[in-house]
Amino acid sequence: MQITRRQFFKVCGAGLSGSSIALMGFSPTSALAEVRTYKLAHATETRNMCPYCSVSCGVLIYTTGDKSKNAKADVIHIEGDPDNPVNRGTLCPKGAALLDMVKSPSRLKYPEVREAGSNEWKRISWDDALNRIATHMKKDRDANFIEKNAAGVTVNRWPSFGFLASSACNNETGYITHKVLRSLGAVAFDTQARI
Amino acid sequence: MALQSLDIARRSATTTPAPGVRQTTEVAKLIDVSTCIGCKACQAACMEWNDIRDEVGNCVGVYDNPADLTAKSWTVMRFAEVEEKGKLEWLIRKDGCMHCADPGCLKACPAPGAIIQYANGIVDFHQENCIGCGYCVTGCPFNIPRISQEDSKAYKCTLCSDRVAVGQAPACAKVCPTGAIQFGSKEQMKDYAAKRIVDLKSRGYDKAGLYDPQGVGGTHVMYVLHHADRPELYKGLPNDPSISPLVSLWKGFAKPLASVAMAAVALGSLFHYVMKGPNEVSKELEDELEKEDAK
Amino acid sequence: MTNHWVDIKNADLVLIMGGNAAEAHPCGFKWVIEAKKDRKAKLVVVDPRFTRSAAVADYYAPVRAGADIAFLGGVVNYLLTNDKIHHDYVKNYSNAGFLINPDFKFEDGIFSGYNAEKRNYGKDTWGYQMGKDGFVMVDPTLQDPNCAFQLLKKHYSRYTPDLVSKVSGTPKDQFLKVCEYIAETAAANKTMTILYALGWTQHSVGSQNIRTMAIIQTLLGNMGMAGGGINALRGHANVQGITDMCLFGANLPGYIASPTEADVDRKTYVEKRTPKPLRPNQMNFPQNFPKWFTSLQKAWYGNAAKPENDFAYEWLPKIDGAYDTLAIFEKMHQGKMNGFVCQGFNPLASVSHKKKVGDALAKLKYMVVIDPLITDTSEFWKAHGEFNEVDATKVQTEVFRLPANLFAEDTGSFTNSGRVIQWHWKAADGPGESKGDVEIIAALFQKLKAMYAKDGGKLPEPIMNLTWPHRIADKPSPAELLMEISGKALADVFDPKDKTKVIVKAGEQVAGFAQLRDDGSTSCGNWIYSGCWSQAGNLTARRDNADPSGLGQTLLWGFAWPANRRIIYNRASCDMDGKPWDPKRTVIRWTGTAWAGNDVPDMRPDAAPAEGVMPFIMTPEGVARLFAPGMADGPFPEHYEPFETPLDKNPFSPGNPKALNNPAARVYKGDMEVFGKAKDFPYVCTTYRLVEHFHFWSKHVRINAVLQPEQFVEIGEELAKEKGIANGDRVKVKSNRGFIKAVAVVTKRIPTLMVDGKKTHTVGIPIHWGFKGLTKPGFITNTLTPYVGDANSQTPEYKAFLVNIEKI
User: Fold this and answer.
1) What is the pLDDT of residues A111-120, one digit of tens each?
2) Cα separation of A48 and B229, whole Å?
3) Which of residues A80, A102, A124 is at a domain's end?
4) Domain range holding A120?
5) Looking at the partner chain, which of C56, C704, C712 has a beta carbon nearest the beta carbon of B37?
6) Which tens digit of pLDDT belongs to each residue from A152-188?
């Protein structure tokens, strides 16, 4: 057994600062051992799905409160849904960190506009944002909509407007987006799915 | 027999006997390195469940991030590129507390109740009792505990004692996408490991085996290794870990010495502890001795 | 996926190539591990890098990025020359015996009908020989030199192990070892599953990479089998669903081809897309096209779509060419677009050639970003040092950023890669004033509609008449929408065999697409989802995970399209008499009176085997295609080099410079000119994902930023030595389109390969960094990538291009 002088001193040093205290009955706290309180005991559990990859793992989202009117639900923890036949409660490092996505400091909270040539964002109301966007769209559509091509065939398309659709949105979003885009005559649209 | 028992088996720096009437099943976490893809889901789940967030570090030329265990990273993946029989193997090991049956940290700990071993085998740190002396670090044969720079307390994996207490698996075991981390009674885990070892042997890993080192009385975190004959291949997993000789010295000699001969100083220490926080060996003395040791 | 995630556990051999399931789909990958643990299955990985999947594989073989067809063509050749094919299956269930037009030729790397100027093929010679009975002529002995089988044999006889090794860089012994593993599954009761992803699609020959594997799986008889199939492991959580909803200019929901300028009226359009069967007695399921299309128009235009106005056919826009992402940015770059919306899409980071994309966005009048997070695209106009060099004052684009909700704040359905549609429930409100995506689109549409109602404008009719049966116009509920997608009867629907019997009453939800009609009596927003919300309610919300067969089919969990079928083409899991090839893994079987078993049969339930109705009901042939005349770049996959290649000629047709790269791939003017040459950019580069991150989202997530904090590139030890780069050094990687700087990870996991007699090094670049987020700021990897796509799908070639690298 090799013990250096330094190690020996360390042993004694620790003796000074710690155990001897307890020996004399001066333990800093009482002798109870408790595990950390289980944090989900009365949280509300909601079944949802991980938004990352196409395994579409089932997740359980835990929120504070019991859905009563005055208790604001706040997401406090997310873990795998053991019932889901594919992930069976497991998650990957992204799914396991979903809480930090929900709580990311990069979450957008308000509509904003960056005016032409400006170097900053400006907060605007939803109503302003949608009015301005719809005005742009209508102006462009009415100016550039092609009703008939050179051969006289009715083509009814709006080629100067583009749209790239998420592949992380719900089916319902995808459907209503497609329905709205076609009704406007949009054709220059695609989805993340292609790339 | 419940495995989530909170009965205390051992408590640091305490001589009060543990309760012994209730029967408890020993738990274990089994890490099957042969099915681990190094995805770090365990690291993510550990941070998320335990409300710890390590710093955003740097890439240091390897996949290991955070690069080492810290007070805020209680488990890390260690990646080793090894060539065996001309074939590349990427050995990936989840590192963290082994929850030894004979825990060196607990034995070394001078702070009463700072380290607890539950009857189910979990070794847990109770930071409110921790004095930050770092003795657990010295006592640990696996180099696991870390002292926080922020609050000078020791931290490490709790085996999610809060989850186990209510009948759940630790966050890392539940989350593991490939099932490389399993959790159950120690007996179940040994049975499961035996099956995995048969499978690995059938795939040419003749030396596949279970890592449950007896030098620390066996562990409550075990590994299935493809090369059980050479644990050191897995980024320095100790071949035959045992409790540091320092801890034996502490138990056999230094502790009574310190207790009796320095009782008076201890009172001062308590005062110091209450007023200023944890004590440390004088920096100057450390440096001086380091120099001397280096000779 | 033709099969589904859990079914992977039923495989005897799992081949991962063109993907890295452990890295990109860890929770699905568990079923690979289960197959290994419980079935003693073997896992073989073929990849340019020794990946996380390879870390737990039984066998790993390297391949040069961009040489997959060379490798797989060699496998086809191996199977045919060693007679390792499933004979009964090939003979009966494929077009092996179909006679091909004798004028079809393949010479010097090019198929007959090529137009070099237009870079495309005329397909006149690619057809079948038709008999007097109106059906394709077949030689059941497979001996006719013009039958598909013999042509296949001839085509791939050139793919010898030596040439394969020379092109792919895979050492010959390793290539042959993989062939041996694969060949074992030619046994009727053995299956191989192939798990691929963007490693195959993101090439200028992407679709043909997959086609080659489809040929292999057909030769081996692995389609339709439990533990078999062709399994595309797709990207985002609802990438499958959004693909099914066809957010593409060229398709309407349910893969209904969009009308083009040539489809002058509804009749022309419908007739062209309603195929006739090519063999007797076949189901030829696409013959139902008029029902799907009419029901869609009824879903969109309700009473305004009527027989008198051709069910509002005129209101549908008619396309005049390509509208894929690359085509859209090309148009934008040419200044032909004014407005643009990015809904949960970050094109500045995720589309190739960042400079071109950034320049294109700067030409817009207005751009709208709908996203839960700050995207790099939303700040394309803002200077972010070296990472984004731009002068904001010169960018005149007005940019709007609208905060959207995340999954946790939204109710609705996602479709996983295995085609299972699953419902999820909202847990909490989003932060601040964020709104759901449906609500944002609906509110915007209501604004537009009000403007058209007030002021009129160009063709307001489709806007004013668009069905909007929502209780709250600005906030349609997901339930209302999924019911519309699934479909309902608008009038009583009668049994075609008994015209007096009502099978669905007016107003009721239909049970499936079999109940759809082409007379306007039904509506359905997406025929392949039909039945997901039936009279029984929302079947996507089902949560009974019982698995009585032990195959993992869980038929009462959610709803799989089509018709809740979990394994597509499952009729092919049985022999001609209807007996399962492997009774231990019975998917379905013929009971003597009907098809039944552990899945929804992919066959008319009462089609007795003696009727000879073949399993591939979505083809007019009824069988799988070894010879596929529909492809843009040839009926047989052929190896072509990536557009940026370390080789100066294609070793499969060294005499023909036209056959160096995919001759039918579209390349825009200006992009061809900036393809790099091997003399300046000597290293093969490939880009990919890491398990710790997801595209450009998780850089905003603290835990993931901790797990992989900083941008890096990976190189092999040999290249590192040559260039004096040590592990952890900072390096600059350049392509002919730009540069990035990052930390070097020097690893044994990137092998140096011998390609065409030369040492070939690979540089690997994970994609996840950008100038916004919690990770250390980084460069957008797509600064480097070339602006060219697959000839069929126009998916960009992110996976194989050329770079140079130097220590900074």
Assistant:
1) 999 999 999 9
2) 45
3) A102
4) 112-194
5) C56
6) 999 999 999 999 999 999 999 999 999 999 999 999 9
Nearest CB to C414 within list A49, A83, A105: A49
- Number of structural domains in chain A: 2
Q: List, as ranges, residues 179-208 from B with C-beta within 8 Å of A.
A: 179
Tell me the pTM.
0.94
Tell me which chain B residues have a C-beta less than 8 angstroms from the C-beta of A94.
44
Residue A65 contacts C, CB cutoff 8 Å: no
C-alpha closest to that of C623 among C138, C194, C75: C138
Both A121 and A150 in one domain: the answer is yes
Q: What are the backbone dihedrals phi and psi of residue B201, each rounded to the nearest 5 degrees, phi first? A: -65, -35
For the question of an ipTM over 0.90, the answer is: yes
**Encoded amino acid at B250, one letter:** W
Residue C470's Cβ-count burial label (10 Å; 0-12, 13-18, 19+) is middle
CA distance A54 to A60: 17
In a domain, A151, yes or no: yes
Are B177 and C30 a contacting pair, CB within 8 Å?
A: yes
Tens digits of per-residue pLDDT, B36-89?
999 999 999 999 999 999 999 999 999 999 999 999 999 999 999 999 888 999
Phi-psi region of C432 (alpha: psi -120 to 50; beta: other; left: phi over 0): left
Nearest chain A Cα distance for residue B265, angstroms: 7
Instruction: Give pLDDT, residue A34.
Output: 72
Q: State whether residue B26 sits within 8 Å of chain A by CB.
A: no
Contact between C421 and C559 (Cβ < 8 Å): yes
Within a domain: A14: no
CB–CB of B112 and A77 under 8 A? Answer: no
**Is A29 part of any domain?**
no
Is residue C417 within 8 Å of C2, Cβ to Cβ?
no
Nearest CA in chain B to C23: B39
Over chain B, what HEC string results? CECCCCCEEEECCCCCCCCCCCCECCEEEEEEHHHCCCCCHHHHHHHHHHCCCCCCCCCCCCCCCCCCCECCECEEEEEEEEEECCEEEEEEEEEECCCECCCHHHHHCCCCCCEEEECCCCEEECHHHCCCCCHHHHHCCCCCCEECCCCCCEECCCCCHHHHCCCCCCHHHHHCCCCCEEEEEHHHHHHHHHHHHHHHHHCCCCCCEEECCHHHCCECEEEEECCCCCHHHCCCCCCCCCCCHHHHHHHHHHHHHHHHHCHHHHHHHHHHHHHHCCCCCCHHHHHHHHHHHHC
Cα(B159)–Cα(C183) distance, integer angstroms: 46
Contacts (Cβ under 8 Å, ≥6 apart) of B1: B23, B24, B25
Q: What is the CATH number of domain B8-233?
A: 3.30.70.20
Same domain, A130 and A97: no
Domains of chain C, first to last: 657-807 (2.40.40.20)
- Closest-CA residue in chain A for B50? A36
Q: Give residue limits of the domains in chain B.
A: 8-233, 263-295
Determine the Cα–Cα distance for residues B96 and B158; give it in Å rounded to an integer. Answer: 10
Q: Measured between CB atoms, does A192 come within 8 Å of chain B?
A: no
Q: Between residues 678 and 717 of chain C, which touch chain B (CB distance below 8 Å)?
A: 691-692, 702-712
Burial class of residue C551, CB neighbours in 10 A (0-12, 13-18, 19+): buried
Which chain C residue is nearest to residue B55, measuring alpha carbons?
A: C706
Q: Using only C-alpha atoms, what is the Rg of chain A?
A: 30
Q: Give the three-state DSSP class for C367.
A: strand
Q: What is the CA radius of gyration of chain C?
A: 26
- DSSP letter string over C532-555? TEETTEEGGG-B----TTSSS--T
Residues A123 and A177 in one domain: yes
Closest CA to C805 of C747, C763, C755, C743: C763
Same domain? For A136 and A176 the reply is yes
